[in-house]
Model the fold of this input.
Amino acid sequence: MKFSHDRFNAAFQAVRACGVLSLEADPVVNLQVFETLSSSNQTAWELLEQGAPAGTVVLALRQEAGRGQWGRPWVSAAGGLYFSIGLEPDLPVAAAAQLTLCSAWGIATALRQVPARLSGVEQGVPVQLKWLNDLVLSGRKLGGILTETRLHQGRIKQAVIGVGINWKNPVPATGITLRSFLETQPVPLIESLEMLAAIAIAGLLAGYQRWQQTDLNLLLTDYFNLLAHRDRPIPLATGRATLIGISPRGELRVRVQPDTITDAAAPEVEILLPPGAINLGYESCGT
Done:
């Protein structure tokens, strides 16, 4: 499987020109493509250490030791989109999750809007988000994001954001490939891996720039509005919970209605669930 820089560059310019994403006039995207890597995140860190500028993108056609959230292995067979981008934010450690939130929102928004604009149709790819870092399509996992950071004087000064999106690679039962979804659509919304890469990279950069330039609460609200579980009750040991928002630390804000059988007089309370505290799963994701 080959990746064409020329097709990518043409696609990236088309994505920029369509006017859906608010991107800088000339965003720096130093794309480096590799046939096989152990991990695109690892290679991105190595390039940053060698002096590569922020905006360097490492794209691997296959990964031998890809990583997901919490150190889980990410199966990275040929046919998927796997890339990592090096960035230079400046934020406190407690706000690290904001990098994942803005990246996930940006990629999902780009997939929802850009293909529609380029194809002249009303709807693009109806991607949703699964807290904290997953892309969801038709109730199944389309992709995931892994953010790694490094500190200087107690603040995050460097970050590598890794992205994996299923294009036409093998996936588990809970997964879905974008190609299988696109084959059911009346028009060819995304025709190549290069176009998908252009949309995803542009979307990530647009989300990152929005995080830098706009009110954080607006971004958190927009992220929350794309959650697949937003309108579904979440069972907790203390009662049934309703999702009401996302905190600046990436925590899930939930309103808990206590078990009325054991404590009918107990009031509703709001609690914060840190990343990893609950697995929302895919069975109850909406379409």
User: Anything to note?
Assistant: Residues 97-119 form the longest helix (23 residues). The mean pLDDT is 90. The longest strand covers residues 140-152. The helical segments are 5-17, 40-49, 97-119, 178-182, 193-213, 216-225.
